[in-house]
């Protein structure tokens, strides 16, 4: 199983609610640079947070890759979601190569939990940073961090 974890691109600092913050022009550019690293990867599913900036990020990636599937929107990829729950949810996709589009602090904590078995060893993830993890199963401490690319 390959899991790519993409933090959304730069978002407007304010909106009516945090969930409604939209990508900035810079954020869109960042996402497209990160999407280029996914070209040729065997993605089978794009799973995204319901927050606007994550949905916009996922859609930009979908278009850039020519991905024909729809984006699966789930409530367990929001900024304050539990990384253990994300690993549990990923078990349903363990035969697939998936892209998760989400937020800090979740993405950093999720990578720390997946690779080191601890959310205390969170991975630094800037806007539009892309991490690639590999494993047979999505288990705490049982995944390998293949690489992390920061959009700059």
UniProtKB/TrEMBL annotation:
| UniProt superkingdom | Bacteria
Q: Which gene encodes it?
A: sixA
Under CDD domains, the record lists:
HP_PGM_like
Q: Cross-referenced InterPro entries, in alphabetical order?
A: His_Pase_superF_clade-1, His_PPase_superfam, SixA
- Which Gene3D superfamilies would you find in this protein's record? Phosphoglycerate mutase-like
Task: State the name under which the record lists this protein.
Answer: Phosphohistidine phosphatase SixA
